[in-house]
Amino acid sequence: MHADDENDWYDWMLLAQAGDAHAYNKLLASLSRAITSYVVRRFGNVEFADDCVQESLIALHEARHTFLPGRPIRPWVFAIVRNRAIDMLRRQQRRQRLFAVDIDDPMLPVADAAPEAHADDRRESADRVLEALPPPQRQALELTKLMGLSITEAASRAGISAGAMKVRVHRATRAAIRAVEADRE
Length: 185
Description:
- By secondary structure, this protein is mainly α.
- It folds into 2 domains: about 5-95, Rna Polymerase Sigma Factor, Chain: A, CATH 1.10.1740.10; about 105-185, Arc Repressor Mutant, subunit A, CATH 1.10.10.10.
- The chain contains 8 helices and no strands.
- The model is unreliable at about 100-115 (pLDDT under 50).
C-alpha cells in the first residue's frame, strides 16, 4: 500500500461521512482490493478472503461513523479487518467442532453402521433439540453457536440487548443439555 492510497482513503472517508456517495464508492472499491491482498497474504485461501472482504466491508460500513478525523485511517481499517478475520476463523472452528464425531465416544450407539451414519444421527438429534426449543432460544443458539456471532452481534440481529441475548443463550444451552440427557436415558 502506498501513502497516496492512505491519503485517498482518508479524504474519501471524510467526504463519505459528509454524505458523498461517489467518494464512498471509491473508498469501498479501493479498500476491497487492499483487504483482499491483506487476507490472501495472511491466510492464502481465496475463498476465505472473498468472505472476509465482504464481512469486513459490512463492518466498516457499520462503523464508518466511528472514524475520527485527524486520526490515521489505515490502523482503524485493519483493526476491523483483523477482528472480522478472527471472528470468521472462530466460526469455522465452532462449526467443525459442532459436526465433528468422536468415533470412540462411549455415548454413541454401537452398531454396524458406518461412522457417517453416526454423524447423520448426531445432526438429526441436534436438529430435534433445536426444534424443541422456543423460537427465541433457538434463534439465540443458531446465531451464537452455529453462526458464531458474538453476543453483541447476535443481539443486534435479534433486536434485543446484549444482556437479554446472554440470558437467552444461557437458558437455551441449559434446555438443550437437559434434552440431550433425557434422550440418552
